[in-house]
Every structure is written in structure tokens, then in C-alpha cells.
């Protein structure tokens, strides 16, 4: 049987079958349609403005490496007028993050972007290795998730950027929808599909890969021969997200459109006004200045628990009450530096070039 020709250009030999559409296409057409779909997402969502300083959250993994490559390509092709930076967070995980950061340093040279690395040790005085030695592996992802989110904002502020982009893909977002449904987390379910988020006290953050399948990101990295780190975090196998991921893969095997269908379902959810009224109002942490729904933000509470030998204090309401019952924090308690947003750069939105 003669090899199939590309369904798009109808001249080159088809090299792959797109998981998202089932089309059999050549390598060059795949690169073009993948990049064009991301460009359309950016334009339709009006993610950037000319002159924006944009930090790419770079872990060295496939998603962030492909994101760096695609953002540079689209910025040059469509003249977005963005200043691009790489921003990496060093959680302090021996044999994992230290190796992946070497990949990020190579990406810095390959894509000719400035690189900023901010470590948990520098910001919080704790590494994830030290945290896991205190809390074990049951709740370690809670610490890492809270600390990492704030570290990204603080690293971006140091770079004086307007915007952070992360490599979260369609699979990640569909998993989050499923997790929030299974946990009954109405507050997060109402906003987890948003492509762009920004509070009064945080830096604008978006997901250009919101509709990009993980399998296609892997294919893009493979056929482009991109340099990325593929080892999974040594502390993540027991994470709750893993159960949602396994379930989603089973759904995708039966129905490839399940990923996008779940995202669209999440987008269609509406939280009743009476439910919204019960949600806590966002305020500013009295200790570090970061956004919070309590007097102390989650990161400050977790850090205080670690410092006072009550590592689980910030994870549950019961633990928090136990911490409060111990009395005021000592004067020599290690705290997070006060957070200040960089000045914005208001300009007009990027328009479509097609």
C-alpha cells in the first residue's frame, strides 16, 4: 500500500496522525497548524499587548520547553512586540530539579532569552527536600503548590514583567475540572478553566496551551528535536491529581474529544450568586503583602507551621486553630519578604494578523 499523503498540503508524505483531530499530516503541516492554533488562542483571548514583558514559567519539561519555542516563533512571525524572559523556580529537589535546571540553562542559550532562577531556599528558607523530611509525602504537594505559585509572582516582580505564561495544557485543565468536581470545590470550579487570571495583588497569568493536547505537545517536541527534561518529580506519584489523570486517559482512549469536552463543560459552569456570597473576600496578607482570603496567606501559614515545628498547621482548619492556640508568633520567626507588584505598562491589545 502506498504511503498516505498529507491531508492538508496533499503533496508530502503523512508522518503522523493528530490525536486531536485524527488527521494524517506531514511534519511541516503539523508544526504550522499547532503553532497557528496557539496563535489563534492568543489573539482571540487578547492575552498580550505590544511592549509587554512576558515571563515564561520554565521547568525544563516538555510543556514549558515547547511553550518557550512556540512563544519565540509566534513573537517573531506575527510581530507581537513582546520582551520574553525565562523564569524558573528551584524547589530544592535533589536529583530532579537540579538536573532539570541544567536543561533550562541550555534553553536560555538556544532561545536567546534572559533567565531568572528563584529558589524556595532563598525565598522561604526551606527546600522541598527539607519540607518532605518534616511532613512526609502525603501533603507535600500542598506545600509545593502554594510556595510555587507565590514564587512565580515574586520572580516575575523581580524581572519587572507584566505577564506570566505557563505550559498548562488541555489535559492539565481537564484534570483540574475533574478534581474540583470530585472534591466539591465550587470556588475553584468556577474559575479553573479561565485562560487568564489576575487579581488586584497578583501579576497577570495565562495559559496559551489551554486547548493544546499533551500528546501533540510531546509530538511537537519530538519532531522539532527540542531539548527537554522528561523525568517525573520524585514526590508527585502519590499526588491526588494522578487519580484524575488516570481517569482522563481512560476517557480519552474511548473518546478523544473528551478532553476538550470537559474543558467546555467547565467553561459553561455558572456558580449561583448565593454560593458566591459565601466565598471569602480577597484581601492582603498582613505579614507578606501577598493576596489572601485570611489575615495570613497560605504560604505564610505553612511557613510558620514549619518554623514552629507544626508542619501540618496550614493544611487543615483544625491545624490552623492548633497553631493559633500556641499564641503569637515569636519575634525571630523567619518570614517571607514583603511583596510589591511591578508597575504596569498599559498599551493597546494585539490584533489578529490573519
UniProtKB/TrEMBL annotation:
One of its GO terms (cellular component) is cytosolic tRNA wobble base thiouridylase complex. Its EC number is 2.7.7.-. The keyword RNA-binding applies. Gene3D superfamilies: HUPs. ATP binds at residues 57-59, 63, 89, 167, 172. Residues 54-232 form the tRNA(Ile)-lysidine/2-thiocytidine synthase N-terminal domain. Its main location: cytoplasm. Keywords: ATP-binding, Cytoplasm, Nucleotide-binding, RNA-binding, Transferase, tRNA processing, tRNA-binding. It comes from the Eukaryota. Residues 283-312 form the Cytoplasmic tRNA 2-thiolation protein 1 C-terminal domain. The keyword Nucleotide-binding applies. It is found in: Cytoplasm. It is an enzyme of class 2 (transferase). GO terms for molecular function: ATP binding; nucleotidyltransferase activity; tRNA binding. Pathway: tRNA modification; 5-methoxycarbonylmethyl-2-thiouridine-tRNA biosynthesis. Pfam families: ATP_bind_3, zn-ribbon_14. GO terms for biological process: protein urmylation; tRNA wobble position uridine thiolation. Plays a central role in 2-thiolation of mcm(5)S(2)U at tRNA wobble positions of tRNA(Lys), tRNA(Glu) and tRNA(Gln). Directly binds tRNAs and probably acts by catalyzing adenylation of tRNAs, an intermediate required for 2-thiolation. It is unclear whether it acts as a sulfurtransferase that transfers sulfur from thiocarboxylated URM1 onto the uridine of tRNAs at wobble position. Prior mcm(5) tRNA modification by the elongator complex is required for 2-thiolation. May also be involved in protein urmylation. HAMAP family: CTU1. Belongs to the TtcA family. CTU1/NCS6/ATPBD3 subfamily. This is Cytoplasmic tRNA 2-thiolation protein 1. It comes from Asterophora parasitica. The gene is NCS6.
Amino acid at each position: 500500500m502506498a504511503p498516505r499523503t498529507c491531508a492538508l498540503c496533499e503533496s508530502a508524505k503523512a508522518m503522523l496522525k493528530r490525536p486531536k483531530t485524527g488527521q494524517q499530516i506531514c511534519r511541516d503541516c503539523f508544526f504550522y497548524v499547532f503553532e497557528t492554533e496557539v496563535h489563534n488562542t492568543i489573539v482571540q483571548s487578547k492575552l498580550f499587548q505590544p511592549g509587554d514583558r512576558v515571563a515564561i514559567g520554565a521547568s525544563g519539561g516538555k510543556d514549558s520547553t515547547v511553550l518557550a519555542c512556540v512563544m519565540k516563533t509566534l513573537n517573531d512571525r506575527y510581530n507581537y512586540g513582546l520582551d520574553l524572559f525565562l523564569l524558573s523556580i528551584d524547589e530544592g529537589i535533589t536529583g530532579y530539579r537540579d538536573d532539570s535546571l541544567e536543561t533550562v540553562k541550555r534553553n536560555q542559550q538556544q532561545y536567546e532569552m534572559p533567565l531568572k532562577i528563584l529558589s524556595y531556599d532563598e525565598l522561604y528558607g526551606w527546600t522541598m527536600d527539607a519540607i518532605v523530611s518534616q511532613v512526609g509525602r502525603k501533603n507535600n504537594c500542598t506545600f509545593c503548590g502554594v510556595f510555587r505559585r507565590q514564587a512565580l509572582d515574586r520572580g516575575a516582580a523581580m524581572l519587572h514583567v507584566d505577564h506570566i505564561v505557563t505550559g498548562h495544557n488541555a489535559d492539565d485543565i481537564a484534570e483540574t475540572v475533574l478534581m474540583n468536581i470530585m472534591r466539591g470545590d465550587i470556588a475553584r470550579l468556577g474559575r479553573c478553566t479561565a485562560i487568564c487570571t489576575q487579581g488586584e495583588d497578583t501579576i497577570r497569568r495565562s495559559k496559551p496551551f489551554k486547548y493544546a493536547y499533551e500528546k501533540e505537545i510531546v509530538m511537537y517536541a519530538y519532531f522539532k528535536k527540542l531539548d527537554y527534561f522528561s523525568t517525573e518529580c520524585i514526590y508527585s506519584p502519590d499526588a491526588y491529581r494522578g487519580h484524575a489523570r488516570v481517569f482522563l486517559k481512560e476517557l480519552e482512549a474511548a473518546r478523544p474529544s473528551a478532553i476538550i469536552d470537559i474543558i467546555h463543560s467547565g467553561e459553561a459552569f455558572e456558580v449561583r450568586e448565593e454560593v458566591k456570597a459565601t466565598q471569602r473576600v480577597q484581601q492582603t496578607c498582613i505579614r507578606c503583602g501577598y493576596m489572601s482570603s485570611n489575615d495570613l496567606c497560605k504560604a505564610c501559614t505553612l511557613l510558620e507551621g514549619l518554623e514552629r515545628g507544626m508542619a501540618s498547621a496550614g493544611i487543615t482548619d483544625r491545624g490552623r486553630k492548633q497553631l493559633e492556640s500556641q499564641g503569637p508568633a515569636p519575634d525571630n520567626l523567619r518570614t517571607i519578604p514583603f511583596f510589591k507588584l511591578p508597575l504596569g505598562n498599559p498599551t493597546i491589545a494585539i490584533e489578529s494578523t490573519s
